[in-house]
Structures are given as C-alpha cells and as structure tokens.
C-alpha cells in the first residue's frame, strides 16, 4: 500500500511537467485554430501519449487506494443505471 502511495506521488509530480499540454489545448479552447491544434498535437505526440499513460496509471492507483466502501460510493455516484 505504501508503495502505491509513493508511486502515486511520483506520478503526480511527473505529470506536472506536461501541464503545458493542458494549458495549450484546453485552458483556452479559442487560443489556437484547428490547424494550430493539429500541428501542436503532432509536434508533441510522444509527450501527449506519455501524459495519457501517466494519467491512466494515476487513475488506477487512486482506485486501488480507495477502500471498498469508497469504491462502492464512487460507482453508485458515477455509473449509469
């Protein structure tokens, strides 16, 4: 469990270096034209893929660190019936 917590902290810090991607593509959606967005995504493709991988692992770790009751509450809140 402690190993998962330290891994989560490590990944959260690592994810910070990719904040420029979020700023560029999502913080101000009208900042870039569609062509500029496409160019940015192509130029930073490897970083975007790494960010996605990190985000997926963070989500998995957060889930694993939840108690069974927290997991149940989460599923009840966010799952579609």
Protein described:
This protein has one domain. The protein has five helices and no strands. It has helices at residues 2-16, 19-27, 34-43, 45-65, 68-78. The radius of gyration is 16 Å and the shape is extended. The mean pLDDT is 94.
Keyphrases for this structure?
about 80 residues, extended, about 80% helix, single chain, mainly alpha
The DSSP helix count reads 5
Profile the largest sheet: none
Count structural domains: 1
Quaternary: single chain
- How much is the average pLDDT? 94
Distance between the termini: 32 Å
* Gyration radius over CA: 16 Å
Helix content: over 70%
Envelope shape: extended
* Protein structure class: mainly alpha
- DSSP E strands, number: 0
Unreliable residue runs: none
The H/E string reads HHHHH
- Percentage of residues in strands: under 5%
């Amino acid at each position: 469990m402690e190993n998962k917590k330290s891994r989560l902290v490590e990944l959260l810090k690592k994810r910070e270096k990719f904040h420029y991607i979020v700023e560029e593509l999502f913080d101000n959606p009208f900042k870039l034209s569609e062509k500029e967005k496409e160019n940015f995504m192509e130029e930073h493709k490897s970083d975007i893929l790494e960010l996605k991988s990190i985000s997926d692992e963070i989500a998995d770790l957060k889930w694993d660190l939840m108690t069974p009751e927290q997991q149940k509450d989460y599923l009840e809140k966010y799952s579609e019936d």
